[in-house]
Design goal:
- By secondary structure, the chain is an all-alpha fold.
- Helices cover 55% and strands 0% of the residues.
- It has six helices and no strands.
- It has helices at 26-38, 40-46, 56-64, 70-81, 94-108, 115-132.
Length: 135
């Protein structure tokens, strides 16, 4: 937004994984996670199941092979280039989180005529939430 202090875009991992040290085969489990999230073959198998690949080289690989939805890649690239503060009161608000999830789904299913239309809905709904929850 013109004159804004930051973009308001929150970038975070879509999913986090860990290996329990007490599992039957922690080394094998760790190797599998490394393979699935850090190799071209793993990226080909996952596609955009957990968003687009976190690694730039794997996003480029998938993009080159046209394995991912172009709008999802565009959204991630834009968000990475224009990310705002990591955590703030609004990014931790459950109502805002639910609204953003809904709007992201609408973007993914191409239910807006333009990204500007989606942005306007975000701004309108944030204003409604803010008005209903004065500080």
């Amino acid at each position: 937004m013109k004159g804004g202090k930051e973009s308001g875009i929150e970038v975070r991992p879509s999913c986090l994984f860990a290996v329990n040290k007490n599992c039957a085969n922690p080394d094998v489990a760790a190797k599998f996670l490394a393979f699935i999230f850090n190799s071209e073959k793993g990226a080909e198998n996952l596609l955009d199941t957990y968003s687009v690949p976190a690694r730039e080289d794997l996003r480029a690989f998938c993009n080159e092979k046209e394995l991912l939805d172009a709008s999802a890649v565009e959204n991630v690239n834009y968000s990475l280039e224009n990310s705002g503060s990591v955590v703030n009161a609004w990014s931790n608000n459950a109502e805002v989180e639910a609204m953003m999830t809904e709007i992201m789904q609408k973007i993914a299913y191409k239910q807006y005529g333009s990204m500007e239309e989606a942005a306007q809905e975000v701004m309108d709904r944030i204003a409604q939430i803010a008005a209903a929850n004065p500080a």
